[in-house]
Amino acid sequence: MPLTTRTYGRRTHHSSPRTTRHVRTTRTTRTTPRHGGGFFSRRHAAPVHHQKRKPTMKDKISGALLKLKGSLTHRPGQKAAGTRRMHGTDGRGSRRRYRY
Prior knowledge:
By secondary structure, this protein is mainly α. The protein has 3 helices and no strands.
């Protein structure tokens, strides 16, 4: 066996056409349902409601400083955390036990 065959493996793509073809004889049935399509596809789906709170002035300032810190230290996660804090979507205040 030549060294190149051992290094690169056998040739899988042949330049000459194959003589035999695989003919599909049976049709398989789908066991899982297909999703999507119709009116309720992704385009017409109802918007998802994200839990949001009203950010205070302290949240705005600390979020802006967190964004700045993330920009200066090249940490995109910290920048994103600052944005979430400024917008009130950081998840604070989402674990209230009793709602009246």
